[in-house]
Amino acid sequence: MKPGGCLDIAKPRVAFIEQTSGLMSLGSRGGKHHTCFSNFIEQFTSRNYNVVWRNVNFADYGLPQQRNRLIMVATREGEPLLNFPEPTHTRDPDSTKLPRFTSVAEAIKGIPRGYPNHDWSPEFKSPRRKHNGDAPLGRTILTGGTTEVHPSGLRAFSNRALACLQGFPLDHKFSVTASKSEVKKQIGNAFPPSVAAVLFGSIKRQLQERDGMKPK
Prior knowledge:
Blueprint (H helix, E strand, L loop, with lengths): L3 H7 L3 E7 L1 H4 L8 H12 L3 E9 L10 E9 L16 H4 L7 H5 L50 H7 L14 H10 L3 H18 L6
Antiparallel strand pairs: 1-3, 2-3
């Protein structure tokens, strides 16, 4: 975790960083990652960047998955601090008037059978515990996929289903030469594109407003 070198070369107006959420909770004073967290922040502040950070549940931004990550946004000296966008989805739509969290069923219902990377796994010999398809995936998708299974409880998620649950558009094309495990690893390592659109879109609009430009 050495972003300082990138800052020295690129000197960006804004830098965006994603890390595991545990770095913040365990990085507080007395936590086992306190020194690591402090050194990480110091790479920005020592170069005259101001940093704001927050643990974010990506389900709040429409991802059909409970994915908690530490998000940091650093702004160069002279630039006002940027605001995190307000949530676009909620667990309780009645009290907030926002759309309900995107569900697993909603995310995967549009995948045609036979679609690329949508090879159905053989059905389990005995049914597994069913997942509530009307809620987001309860666990984070990692490079090996997820331990949760299709809402039917009869099979694992295909790579295409995992991609949809990770916020990829349905028409995203993975390399035809990549193995199934390589595609799954790429999906698990990815910053969810749908969440990136919300966060980076917010940053872009704030910068345009401060530059006297009409946000697009």
